[in-house]
Every structure is written in structure tokens, then in C-alpha cells.
Queue: 2 jobs
Job 1
Amino acid sequence: MTDLTALDNAHAAMTADDTNDAARLRFYERLADSELFLLLSEEPADENVTPELFDLSDHRFVLVFDREDRLTQFTGAPAPYAALSGRVIAGLLAGQDIGLGVNLDVAPSAILIPPEAVNWLAETLGHAPEQAEARIEEIGRPTGLPEVLLQGLDAKLATAAGLAHSAYLATAVYEGGGRNHLLAFVDATPGAEDALAKAVSEALTFSGVEAGALDVSFVRASDPLAAKLAQWGLRFDLPQPEQPQEIGRNAPGSDPDKPPILR
């Protein structure tokens, strides 16, 4: 099969070596970041969704697919579904003793994720970074960060389209002599700061790196600090979204502030 998805590749890396914890974490990160098509028992009503439940391997499972055509291939005919991110689905299922069947019978990434693993994923995604204030006195080149973290940041920031113009990874020296690596976002969209900080926190977690290894800050392109970051830092360009098109009624889960209600 040549038409592999990011989830297929992450699953292959995970199953190639059962002892590779980093690959397992990356799979769960891809699962959380992916848009998944959740098989429903009926068409969604307003913000309510009713997943089809299956009794498999001593647990109940809902089924998700990372492509719409894979869902149709599984069902053999058009079926109702809700397109939601993996993180939203994990949050809906947490604590309900329901597992997640992913791409069953239709892809090499087919896997049954038991309820306890769904709970772990939801809990991990729910961790919020701590806030603190400190004055930056010097900026230098980043050194000594593991390659797995750099790859994790690159992949995570690729999912943050439109939340900021760019970001710089650098070493920061703070007032009082403290020193740490810093990821500074340039021209973040107002209100996106929490989402960006959480994205960085997840990149650390799913890279297997301690959370204290990286600070996050926000600057405007006109700030003097931005020029120093451009001089010394490692730059990440965030994708910029296409111009939005006018659409009709929103689908359940399309508004992150109003997640669907599981029935």
C-alpha cells in the first residue's frame, strides 16, 4: 500500500519495536492531532452525537477512521459520522469505560485502544503548562536539545495553522542569572496564547522530554527582542490558513469551544 497516512506511519514505527517508548508516544500524539471520522448510529442532532458501540475484546468500543473513505470501506455503504479531532474524542470517552477502535479491517494502522489507554490520553492532553513571569536579558543559540524534541516541535507547530506567524527556539538568560531554552512565538493571534503554550507542552510530553526543558513566550515582530531571536534562534514557520469560505450550519465539534455532547 502506497497511500499511507501519518497515522499509518506512526503505527508502523510503534509496532516495529515494542520497547520503543518514544515511537509509542508519537503514535498517540498523531492520534490526538488527527481528524478522525467517528462512526455514528444516527445522524447528529445539533451538538449531540451518538456513536455506534461495538462489544469487542471484553470492552465496548467506538470506531474511528482517519479518512472518510476508510469508514465507508468498513461499513460498505454511506453511514453517519462526526469528524472530530482525536483529542476531542478522547475527552468525550474518558471515564466511560469505552475504548477506541482505529481503522479496523481497512488499514495497516488498525488497532484496538482499551479504555484505560483512552483515559491516559485524555488526562495527558488535559495537562496545562504553568505560567510565570521573568525578564529576559540575553538571547543565544539553542544547544543540546535532543533531535526527537526538535522533530516533535516541528510536527506539532505544523498543526497550529494561523495561530502565529512564526516561532524561534533559542537560549534565554533571565534576570537573576537563570537560563533555559525558550520558544518564542512571533505575532500570535490574539487569544491563541494558551493553545500555543499547550501545543508546546504536548510536544515535550510526547517526545519523552521533561516539561521544564522549555519556556514559551510571545513577542510582536516590532519588539526589539524579535530581532535578537531572529539573529540567534532556530526559526519555525507556522502554516498560514487559506481565506475562510462562507459555509452553512456548523458540524458538531467544528467549534473547539463547543465540543459535541456524547449520547
Job 2
Amino acid sequence: MSPARPASGPIPSPNIWHWPEIYEVENRAQDADGAVFAALRDVADWSDRDVLDLGCGTGFHLQTFAETARSVTGVEPHPPLVARARDRVRVVTPPITVLAGSAERIPLPDDSVDVVHARTAYFFGPGCGAGIVESMRVLRPGGVLAVVDLDATVGGYGDWMRADLLHYDPARVEAFFDAQGFDLVRVRTRWEFDSREAMRSVLGIEFTERTAERAFAQTPGLALEVGYRIHTRRAPVGLVL
């Protein structure tokens, strides 16, 4: 979860911005069984479609979309991550485009993509209305905005989130998306690490030191259960005459 929005500019993402190498370890551990992508495909199938990964970070998910999509574009506000993402996909076929931009200023024309995917980036509930409007602008009629975020109602990861983010109210966030016309699918998935040291390092960039140590002590082995919410909103198709 990101801190409060600054007066101007993108919302800082303190984990991947400051520790991209550790966040890479986290990305490899997440969704070990592919449950999030399976649920996402059910509600926003990207096969033979044009996909925008909004807040793509180092581009970890871009190639997964490219396996079946017609085209893939990543948009990321943080210049060092833009460079990393471009390096990552430089030799990928089909080509993937990575652009500098933000959720509030997407550098794409109107009606240019079929799926906007945003995972744990920008869309954290109240305050993200400008990004929703901008996503609707770039979506073609019938296209889907899919917001994938952590489900803080699922313990223990959710318990640790709420311990550190006392201002965060999962019910309020979900009510916001519901009021904005989003559908909701909940997914339970598993993060699995190569070692206890890798797990500890990831917990250390996601939580305060005290909470990270508690989380590590409460998690034996190499895996932990994590809940996700997938909020989807479809762009209007319009009248058929």
C-alpha cells in the first residue's frame, strides 16, 4: 500500500522504488499457483486484444500478457523503473512498448486499448477518481479496467497490513469501488519463496520492522496465503441503432 498522495507528481511506491531487486523476489514469489491470472482472464480476457499494464514497475507482468495479447503497453511514472522495464522486454516477441506516464496522464489516445490492468498501483479507493476517468478514456467500448489489489480482510497478510495502516479501511475501499460501478472477485493465492531469507527480505520492504518480524515469526516454512481483490469496470458500449 502506498502512502498518501503528494501535492503533485506520482504516488511514491516505497517498496519497488527503493528496493527493486527485493521486489523482484516478491514478484517471483507471488501467485505461485497462478490463481490471480486465472481469475483475471475470466473477467478481462486479453487474448488477441490490446493491453495496457498501468503502473507496470519493472515490467514483470508484461511478458505474461504478451503471450496471447495482440499488443502490450506498459506505463510507469518512475524513470528508473521505466528503464528497467524497457531493458527487460527489449528482445521479447511480440514487441512490448514501455512509456513514461501516470494513471492520471496516460500517454495513449482515446479508445486505444481493450484491457487496462493495474496491480497494487494507484487505485487504492477514494481519491483515485482521476485515474478511473483516464482509464475509461483510453478503453475502447466494451473494454475492461481491472484493478488488482491486496485483500486486507484476509489474514495473516491482511492482519499485518491493517496493523501498519491504521487509517486503511478495507470496507470503505470496497464501498468506493462498488459505488463507481465496479464488480468484485476475491481470490486467495499463495506466495512461495526459495528460502526463509528471501521471505524475510520481502516482508521487510512491505511492513514496518516490528510488523515484519512478527509476520516472519508467524509464518513457518516458505509459503504464506494472501488474498486479492479484482475490481473490474467495463467501458460503455453505447447505443446500437
